[in-house]
Every structure is written in structure tokens, then in C-alpha cells.
């Protein structure tokens, strides 16, 4: 990438935003919190991957998916399957009637590891599956929907139905999936205990690194011609189509990218929190993730991260003191954002804070050289 | 004359919406570099004909041959790639993007997903955008958000978005509707300039404008051709006077 190109993809202000976010996540958070709180932030940041994907899909492409939990969950489950198999060696499961298989299978009278679990003994396979399984699923859904020009509300409803179906499937197939409890009691990654404080620190930083990788990818996409095409499609789909573009392919691509981001978030969730369950797959978490994105500002990739952190911080604080009120607060928040601040935090920043910040260098200059004014005035 | 000598040959074209034939056994031929104007009363099926040619609506029967290539079986973007450009009745531009970006997105390169990701704003693109902006009187507005343009400028911008694709056949649906007198004049001039090297089909109600630009006129009525020929001939056709021009 030449310097010219670099500047067009990463303009100065965006570099500042990257730097500020990096300072917040990599320096301020770890220095100001104990490991329990930092681990919570790490968990929230896994949702930021989903919100980031939604910025591209929904904010830019106008494709509202209410089923991103599906991809978060699929990514998380792929990771959890590997960790569960490692935690289920014959030595530690010798009290089961069939040692060597995950405990929940044994409880469900399954005596042999199902075929689709077999490859998850292999870490490289599991890691590839984390990315590939949700992306292929998104691709299939995307082809089925977008090639037939299903969009808007209908697409949102169908994705919501998918989230519901997958939850029911996971809960129903208890013997293969761990059912409503999910896959729990995950211990080690290739012998490295992920439950220790040091592991949690390392995973937090790995998570932050991956989040920034995804942010950079999102930045490159939105600054490319593809990003502008997405905006164009959102406003005038027919004009794009009759300018010689196969609109559905662009929608499929961005939907798959959003799914891949969500999947990375899901896998990092499993690693940091130590389990995966259907309660992160269904309709409620999927809609929550849309709220994170909306609060942050659906047109801002940085807003997605701040929005996720803010809403989750509020959720934790509120539900510690008024657990029964949280859902109402969340609903009110969503309504407030949609009615009053359609561009979320990023929109508020842009209209109120940015003009002020732009003035600061000028103000400093004037304060630093007051004599220049006096002089010119005297002459 | 054989079909392939025409740029566009529409034969026996019919489309039926739940039994209502919006276009009924329509045939017409457009030659290279011709400006053809389609006129007719409301509901005559004029816009539907353009929809059929550009693939927005699928025909029930009949054929549309463009340079000998059957268009009725192609999907929309392939028809565009074949060299047919279409302007919609209401200005369809990307209001959130700048005039420059609107034209750049219409530039025929990087039209698939990975092409669009790798697309670079190079000298060729810049030159093409500037040339077209000059043609459509918008050079000074390249950095303006398209949503802020006047109605007439939006219409020109959409014409420009088609020009940058260098189509062989340009279809314009009421390009001067809602324009001021001065803008109409400028648009007629623009159309006369851009038809060098391409054919244009225009739907229009403004008879003065039609007289200014048309090489030949097709009058449609109830999905069929009522009359066809030079403006002079059509104007004096008693059938046309009765259904369209008379009142």
C-alpha cells in the first residue's frame, strides 16, 4: 500500500480515534481495574465484534440482522467443543460410564463421541471452524435471501427466526450440544489453564488485538469503493443494480464479513468466560447486540465499541442494584436512541463535541501568542 | 432489413400483469445514433417498455434484441454490461455521497465484490469523472453532497452517471420533468451533444422539447404503437391528434 493510499484509508482523524481507543482498551482499562473487572470488560469487548459487524451490515449496507447471536454462538461453540474435548480426557472422566467423552453426553446415555465432534480434537481445525462454519452458514442464508431480493423487515424477521431455531435445536439436542446449560467446565487450551489470572490477562490482550485487527479490516472496507457502494445500495438499490452491479453479491459479502467478526467474538467469549450456552445465541442477545450498535452509532466503527462498553457497564451497574428494572431501562434506552439520537453516541460526538475540539488548536495558539494581537493593534 | 442491422429490435413484446396487457404486441426498431422519443397519454405503457428493455420487468412474450443479443433472458447487470443505460423518472442518485463519488461509483470498473475492494482512484478515473462533470455542468459541484443539488442538477447528475459508463443505448424517462425553462434548454443541448456515437430513447411529454431533439417519434397508446415517424408526420396523424395531441 502506497503512502497515498494509506492516507485515503486512514485519514488523520481516524488515526487519532484508533489511538484513543487503543489507549483506553490497552492502557487505561488494565491499569485501573482488578482482574475480575477487566475480565468483564474483556467479555463486553467480545460483543463489540458483533456490533462492529452490524455497523458494516446495518449502518452501511442497510441490512438489519436480528440474528447475529447465531454467528456469535456458532463461533463460540466451535471453540467450546475443542476445549471440552480437551477437558474430557479419559483420566478426568473415569467415573463416567463411558470415559473420554464430554460429561453431558454421558448423562444423556450417549456412549460414543458423535462424528461431528471428532475433528474438534484438532486445534487448527477448531480455529478454522470458528471462522468458516459461521461464514458458510451466513453465505447460505445470504444467497437464499439476497438472490431472491428478500430485504428490509422480512430479512430481519427471518434472521430472528433463525436465532430462535438454532436455540431450540441446541436445547433439544442435549446429548450432542449440552442443552440449555451449554458447554461448561472448560479448563485448558493445549494444557494451558485458561482459568488463572495470568491467562485472563493474556486473553484480554489477545482479544484486544483481534478487535483492532477487525477494526482495521472494517476501516479498509468502509473506505474502499465497496464501502461507498454499500451506502449507495442502502439509498438507491435500483440505481446500483442498473449501474451494472450484482447487488446481492455485495450484500452476501458484507453479511458474511459481519458473521465472521461475530464468530471471532464468540470464540473469544468462550475462552475468557469459560463456557458457551444457548443464552448467547437466541433472540434476546441478538437484539441486545443491535442495541449496542445503535447506542454507539450505527455509522461509526469506533462508536460500536464505545456503545458496547457503555451499555454493558450500565447493565452491570444497574442489574447489580435493580435487577428487575434493567430490561425496562434497556428498552427505554433503545427508544431514546432511535427517537432522539438516530446516530447514537458517535452522532452526538460529531454534532456537539467535534466542532468544539476543532477549535482547541486555534484557542491554544491565541493564548500562546497574545502579544501578536496587541502589536498589530498598536500599529 | 435483417434484425442485426438495428441497434435495438423490439418485436412482438407483450407483458401482462394479472391479465392486463400493459404492453401489447409492441414492435419498434432503433438505429445507431438515433434519438427516438416515445410519447403517449398516461398509462400507454411507455415506462413499462423501458422497464422491459433494461430488465426491471420480465416480458411475458416477445423479443428484445440489442446488437443481435437477446435481452429478455439476461439479468439487470448483464444488460448494463451489454451497453444499455437507463435513467429513472425521479432522479435516482446517491444523496449521501458527493457528486464525485456518485460518478466514480458509476465508472465501469471493479464491478464485482473483490474488484470493488481493490478499486483505486487513479488518473483514468479522475479524468473520466472530470470530463463527465464538465459535460453535465457540475464541475464546480464535485465535492458537494448530491442530496444538496437542485432538482435539475440531480437529473443531470444521473445522466452523467450513465454517460461515464459509455452505453451504446441510453434510455431517459422524462429527463426535463420539473425543470425550469433555462434548464430545459440546457438539457436539450446536453442531449444533442451526448448522442454522438450512441442511440437515445427518451420518454417525454414536453412537445417543444420533443420537437427540439427527436429524430423519430413513436406514439404509444394502450400498450401498442399508434403511429411512428418524424415529428412532422406524427403531429399531423389524425389518430394521434385524437388520442393525445388533441386536448
Keywords:
A: 379 residues; mainly alpha; 2 domains; globular; disordered C terminus; B: 247 residues; alpha/beta; Rossmann fold; six-stranded mixed sheet; four-stranded antiparallel sheet
Structural features, described:
- The complex is a heterodimer of chains A (379) and B (247).
- Chain A has 379 residues and is mainly alpha-helical.
- Chain A contains 17 helices and two strands.
- Chain A folds into two domains: 30-277, no CATH class; 354-379, no CATH class.
- In chain A, 74% of the residues lie in helices and 1% in strands.
- Chain A starts with a helix and ends with a helix.
- Chain B has one domain (3-245): P-loop containing nucleotide triphosphate hydrolases (Rossmann fold), CATH 3.40.50.300.
- Helices cover 36% and strands 24% of the residues of chain B.
- Chain B is built from ten helices and ten strands.
- In chain B, strand 1 (8-17) and strand 2 form a beta hairpin.
- In chain B, helix 3 (99-106) packs parallel to helix 6 (151-163).
- The mean pLDDT of chain B is 90.
Gyration radius of chain A, rounded: 23 Å
**What can be said about the biggest beta sheet of chain A?**
2 strands, antiparallel
**Series of H and E elements of chain A:** HHHHHHHHEEHHHHHHHHH
CATH topology of chain B: Rossmann fold
Large-scale geometry of chain A: globular
Number of strands of chain A: 2
Layout of helices and strands, plus pairs?
The complex is a heterodimer of chains A (379) and B (247).
Chain A lengths: L2 H7 L2 H21 L2 H26 L7 H20 L15 H5 L15 H24 L5 H21 L1 H4 L10 E2 L2 E2 L3 H27 L1 H11 L1 H5 L5 H27 L9 H14 L4 H21 L4 H15 L3 H25 L1 H9 L1
Antiparallel strand pairs in A: 1-2
Chain B lengths: L7 E10 L2 E11 L4 E5 L6 H9 L6 E6 L2 E2 L5 H7 L1 E4 L11 H8 L6 H6 L4 H13 L15 H13 L5 E5 L7 H14 L4 E5 L3 H7 L2 E6 L2 E6 L1 H5 L2 H8 L2
Helix pairs in contact in B: 3-6
Amino acid at each position: 500500500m502506497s503512502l497515498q493510499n494509506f492516507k485515503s484509508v486512514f485519514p488523520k482523524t481516524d488515526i487519532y480515534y484508533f489511538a484513543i481507543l487503543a489507549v483506553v482498551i490497552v492502557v487505561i482499562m488494565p491499569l485501573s481495574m482488578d482482574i475480575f473487572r477487566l475480565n468483564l470488560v474483556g467479555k463486553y469487548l467480545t460483543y463489540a465484534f458483533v456490533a462492529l459487524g452490524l455497523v458494516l451490515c446495518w449502518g452501511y449496507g442497510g441490512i438489519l440482522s436480528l440474528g447475529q447471536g447465531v454467528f456469535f454462538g456458532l463461533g463460540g461453540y466451535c471453540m467450546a467443543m475443542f476445549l471440552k474435548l480437551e477437558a474430557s480426557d479419559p483420566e478426568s472422566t473415569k467415573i463416567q460410564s463411558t470415559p473420554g467423552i464430554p460429561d453431558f453426553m454421558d448423562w444423556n446415555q450417549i456412549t460414543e463421541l458423535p462424528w461431528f465432534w471428532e475433528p474438534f480434537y484438532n486445534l487448527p481445525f477448531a480455529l478454522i471452524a470458528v471462522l468458516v462454519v459461521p461464514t458458510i452458514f451466513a453465505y447460505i442464508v445470504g444467497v437464499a435471501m439476497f438472490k431472491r431480493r428478500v430485504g428490509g423487515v422480512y430479512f430481519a424477521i427471518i434472521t430472528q427466526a433463525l436465532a430462535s431455531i438454532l436455540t431450540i435445536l441446541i436445547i433439544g439436542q442435549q446429548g450432542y450440544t449440552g442443552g440449555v446449560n451449554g458447554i461448561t467446565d472448560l479448563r485448558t487450551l493445549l494444557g494451558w489453564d485458561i482459568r488463572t489470572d495470568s491467562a485472563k490477562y493474556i486473553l484480554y490482550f489477545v482479544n484486544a488485538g483481534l478487535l483492532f485487527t477487525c477494526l482495521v479490516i472494517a476501516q479498509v472496507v468502509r473506505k474502499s469503493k465497496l464501502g461507498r457502494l454499500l451506502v449507495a445500495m442502502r439509498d438507491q438499490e435500483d440505481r446500483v443494480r442498473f449501474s451494472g452491479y450484482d447487488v446481492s453479491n455485495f450484500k452476501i459479502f458484507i453479511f458474511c464479513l459481519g458473521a465472521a467478526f461475530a464468530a471471532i467474538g464468540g470464540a473469544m467469549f468462550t475462552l475468557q468466560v469459560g463456557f458457551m450456552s444457548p443464552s448467547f445465541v437466541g433472540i434476546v442477545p441478538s437484539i441486545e447486540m443491535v442495541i449496542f450498535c445503535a447506542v454507539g452509532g450505527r455509522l461509526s466503527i469506533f462508536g460500536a465499541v464505545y456503545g458496547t462498553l457503555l451499555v454493558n457497564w450500565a447493565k452491570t451497574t444497574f442489574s447489580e442494584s435493580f435487577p428487575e428494572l434493567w430490561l425496562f431501562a434497556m428498552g427505554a434506552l433503545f427508544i431514546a436512541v432511535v427517537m432522539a439520537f438516530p446516530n447514537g453516541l458517535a452522532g452526538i460526538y460529531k454534532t456537539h463535541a467535534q466542532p468544539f475540539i476543532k477549535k482547541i488548536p486555534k484557542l491554544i495558539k491565541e493564548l500562546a501568542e497574545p502579544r501578536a494581537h496587541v502589536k498589530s493593534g498598536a500599529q | 432489413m435483417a434484425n442485426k442491422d438495428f441497434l435495438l429490435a423490439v418485436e412482438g413484446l407483450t407483458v401482462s400483469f394479472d391479465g392486463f396487457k400493459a404492453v401489447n404486441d409492441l414492435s419498434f426498431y432503433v438505429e445507431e445514433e438515433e434519438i427516438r422519443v416515445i410519447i403517449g397519454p398516461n398509462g400507454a405503457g411507455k415506462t413499462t417498455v423501458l422497464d422491459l428493455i433494461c430488465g426491471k420487468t420480465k416480458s411475458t412474450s416477445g423479443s428484445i434484441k440489442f446488437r443481435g443479443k437477446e435481452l429478455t433472458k439476461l439479468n439487470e447487470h448483464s444488460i448494463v454490461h451489454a451497453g444499455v443505460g437507463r435513467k429513472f423518472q425521479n432522479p435516482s442518485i446517491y444523496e449521501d455521497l458527493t457528486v464525485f463519488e456518485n460518478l466514480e461509483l458509476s465508472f465501469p470498473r471493479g464491478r464485482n465484490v473483490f474488484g470493488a475492494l481493490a478499486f483505486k482512484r487513479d488518473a483514468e478515473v479522475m479524468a473520466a469523472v472530470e470530463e463527465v462533470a464538465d459535460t453535465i455542468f457540475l464541475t464546480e459541484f464535485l465535492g458537494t453532497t448530491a442530496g444538496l443539488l437542485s432538482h435539475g442538477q440531480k437529473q443531470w447528475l444521473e445522466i452523467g452517471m450513465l454517460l461515464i459508463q459509455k452505453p451504446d443505448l441510453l434510455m431517459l424517462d422524462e429527463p426535463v420533468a420539473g425543470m425550469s425553462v433555462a434548464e430545459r434548454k440546457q438539457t436539450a443541448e446536453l442531449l444533442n451533444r451526448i448522442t454522438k456515437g450512441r442511440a437515445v430513447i427518451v420518454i417525454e411529454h414536453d412537445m417543444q422539447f420533443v420537437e427540439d431533439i427527436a429524430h423519430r417519434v413513436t406514439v404509444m397508446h394502450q400498450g401498442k404503437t399508434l403511429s411512428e415517424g418524424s415529428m412532422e408526420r406524427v403531429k399531423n396523424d389524425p389518430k394521434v391528434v385524437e388520442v393525445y395531441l388533441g386536448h
